[in-house]
Amino acid sequence: MAKRKAEEPPKGAPAWQSTFADLMNLLLCFFVMLFAMSDVDKQKFELIAASFTQSFSVFSGGAQAIGDGILISNGVSQLNELDEYMTTMGKAAESDPEEKDKWDEIEQEQLQESESLSELVEEALNEQSLDGMVDVDFTSQYVSLTLNGALLFDSGSAEIKTDSLPILEKLGVILRKYGKSIIEIEGHTDNVPIHNSRYADNNELSSARALSVFNYLVENSNLDPAMVKHTGRGEYVPIADNSTETGRAKNRRVEIKIYHTLSTY
Fold this sequence. Notes:
Blueprint: H1 15-37, H2 42-56, H3 79-95, H4 97-127, E1 134-138, E2 142-148, H5 149-152, H6 165-178, E3 183-188, H7 202-221, E4 228-232, H8 245-251, E5 253-259
């Protein structure tokens, strides 16, 4: 009986190997670009572009090496050296007095913008007779409006009290007027555990309260939903000592953050 002739394996590299090699090259290019764009540095970008020219002929320009003659085309084995080079470049930028002064100036402008916005908001709160119900604070990124949770909700509930709706309505007018960027609504609780038929823990309760405020403001103040965020922070960002009733009452709150146009949020 004749023996069956063994089939010869296909010649050349397996198909998956070529695909895998192409994928590795693309990933290498992608991560190199991430390295190059992680910090806006003209000199660094020019070095990266020059190395790409030498290696892949992607950009036009002369062939230059990164570091001491180390080109990106040397492959994955040189990624550690590339990482070290980028880290060195970043540290150099941080230690550059001119660079530091520039960022300090930007932060000062942001702080002034927040202060100006907070003054306008406080004036509007006074006009609406809400100055005693809403605490105003600010950072370089936003102006914060804080409402006590007991003012808006009954204990363990996320349903807004009927007599608190006029307060939110007036706040909506202020947010509509001065909210030129992102508005973020945060729900906060104290650290006393909660478990009832509706909410398993403080995270769910704080999220539900933030969502209730979000829904009311969007439906009644013509705010753009795409510009309003709502998050539940639970018990994890206290502003007072949870060991006292006074402190816990302060921690049960809703914060509305108004980011301004200079924010880097």
